[in-house]
Amino acid sequence: MAHILIAEDETAINNLIRSNLKLVGHSCAQAFTGPEALELAQSQTFDLVLLDVMLPGLDGFAVKAKLPTGLPVIFVTAKTSLSDKLQGLGLGAEDYIVKPFEVLELLARVEIVLRRGGKSARTFTLDGLRVDLDAHRVFLREEEVPLTPQEYSLLEVLITNRNLALSREKLLNLAWGYDYEGESRTVDAHIQRLRKKLELENRIQTVYKLGYRLSTR
């Protein structure tokens, strides 16, 4: 997985981002000021920087201008004006996320940028399961398992957000789409089929009064 620098001066937000990135398999370093972010970026090799604009010592725009060439950056900031967003993107940032944000949205944006740079693992393995995320093919002990398009979509959402507890409503939004008008019980039925087909009874865990999590731990 990727090595990511989180440059954010609010400790609670920095720690929240770090804990969720680590849950899905990334390693992280934390910086709380602009100069600290630059020092880390120059002393370690990172695949991505999550960069706040309003950093003490040196703001995020100035930090971005001094980062190593080719290092992808996503600005994560409370600055909402169009001019700020255009400035950030004009400096070559891959994306610009406004606070407050949903963690799952942040993780999805991170995945897109890493995939674009070829830094995202496109094969997922767990026990005897192997999922080719580019070809949309699933293998159990090297024998291909046919899944319906909806079953595969749900599996990919669980993999992308592994170790995170996802509500039925969130799974519906992510795997079925925001315009889906069916009941959340369809999630339960699809979960049961994935558990059985892929022998994931102990890995796809029920989260009481919430939904499900794919545990890789």
From TrEMBL:
Domain of life the protein comes from: Bacteria
Entry keyword set: DNA-binding, Phosphoprotein, Transcription, Transcription regulation, Two-component regulatory system
Gene3D superfamilies: 3.40.50.2300, 6.10.250.690, Winged helix-like DNA-binding domain superfamily/Winged helix DNA-binding domain
DNA-binding region: 121-216
Domain OmpR/PhoB-type: 121-216
List of residues that carry 4-aspartylphosphate: 52
Domain Response regulatory span(s) in chain numbering: 3-114
Keyword Translocase among UniProt keywords: no
InterPro entries in the record: CheY-like_superfamily, OmpR/PhoB-type_DNA-bd, Sig_transdc_resp-reg_receiver, WalR-like, WH-like_DNA-bd_sf
Function: May play the central regulatory role in sporulation. It may be an element of the effector pathway responsible for the activation of sporulation genes in response to nutritional stress. Spo0A may act in concert with spo0H (a sigma factor) to control the expression of some genes that are critical to the sporulation process.
Protein name as annotated: Stage 0 sporulation protein A homolog
Organism: Allofournierella massiliensis
